[in-house]
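As agreed, record copied across for absentees:
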Amino acid sequence: MLLAPPACALLPERAQDLPELTFWQRRTRRFDLAAAVAGLTHDAAVLTGEGPGYSDGVPLIHFPG
C-alpha cells in the first residue's frame, strides 16, 4: 500500500552505500531504521510511525501507527 502513491519509491541498494548503512545500523541497532536514514542521500524524507527512533535533523513524514 505504501508504494502505490507516486510520491513513494523503493530505493535501490548499492555496494557503495554499505559503509553508511553499516554505520547507521550500528547506531540505531535496527536494519530498517538504518536503511531509511541511509536513504537520505537521495534527498528523501523518512515515512514512519516511529519518529523518536531517528536523530534530530532527519526529515520525517510521521503517520500514527
Remarks:
- The first strand starts at residue 46 and ends at 48.
